[in-house]
Specification:
By secondary structure, this protein is an alpha/beta fold. The protein has a single domain, classed as Rossmann fold, CATH 3.40.50.300. It has nine helices and ten strands. The strands form two sheets. It has a six-stranded mixed sheet with strand order 6-7-8-3-9-10, with helices on both faces. The protein has a four-stranded antiparallel sheet with strand order 2-1-4-5, covered by helices on one side. α3 packs across α4 and α4 crosses α5.
Length: 244
């Protein structure tokens, strides 16, 4: 299944003001992997995710989603294969009802309404909020909004799921439900987060970014338990590993 991998080759990116965000990022994520992307605020995590989805384009380097290079021409294909759940669920929810939000992308692709309905119902059932389909998004809790945002991506049936700070603002019960939900997905997953305990639990592999460079890429349990490396990266080891 070559269409499931992500290959990032020597990617650089500078903001319009000249500030460099990424400095030669290289990695490959294979089919079925769940990979954590971690780093301090401003390390370049969100910029990298936006580049993979084609929201930004690198100033140097290349990205391939399977055999498809990331170019403006290929964006419609890329966005069918890669789904991004934003850090702020409100950025993805703007329609009058949850149903309409989950259906929005499908209708943009001109799918028949019967197929739209099938996919919307399936996605809402997957995240456990079918009973909220007729509710206005602004009336949802943070956990329900996050579930609706994930459903809007899942309805597109992407090969690769990317999540930016998925547990932000979630209460403990909603956080646990989200983690359990993500464990069930067979997607290739990239999760950028400051929640080291979630990364420990979900991701077999972790990449640390510092000041736009990759400074570590390997087994999560080796990287996140390395106190010197985590301190160098301005991160803390997972709470479960911290001594009382």
């Amino acid at each position: 299944m070559t269409h499931h991998f992500i290959e990032v080759k020597n990617v650089h990116y500078s903001y319009p003001d000249g500030n460099k965000a990424l400095n030669g990022i290289d990695f490959k994520i294979n089919y079925g992997e769940t990979v954590g992307i971690v780093g301090a605020n401003g390390a370049g995590k969100s910029t990298l995710l936006n580049i993979i989805l084609g929201v930004f384009f690198p100033s140097k380097g290349e990205i391939n989603i399977g055999d498809i290079p990331l170019t403006k021409k290929n964006l419609p294909l890329i966005r069918q294969k890669v789904g991004l759940v934003f850090q702020n669920a409100d950025d993805q929810l703007f329609m009058p009802t949850v149903y309409d939000d989950v259906a929005f992308g499908l209708r943009n692709f001109k799918l028949e309404e019967r197929e739209v309905e099938r996919r919307v119902i399936k996605a809402l059932q997957t995240v456990g909020i079918l009973h909220l389909k007729d509710k206005a998004p602004y009336r949802l809790s943070e956990g329900e909004k996050r579930a609706a945002a994930i459903a809007s991506v899942l309805s597109m049936e992407p090969d690769i799921l990317i999540m930016d700070e998925p547990t932000t603002s979630l209460d403990p019960k909603s956080r646990r439900r989200l983690i359990n939900l993500l464990k069930e997905f067979n997607h290739t997953k990239i999760i950028a987060s400051h929640d080291m305990d979630m990364i420990w639990e979900l991701c077999e592999r972790t990449i640390i970014i510092k000041e736009g460079f990759i400074i570590a890429d390997g087994l999560t349990k080796e990287i996140l338990s390395n106190e010197n490396l985590m301190e160098e990266s301005s991160l803390e080891i997972p709470l479960r590993l911290q001594k009382l």
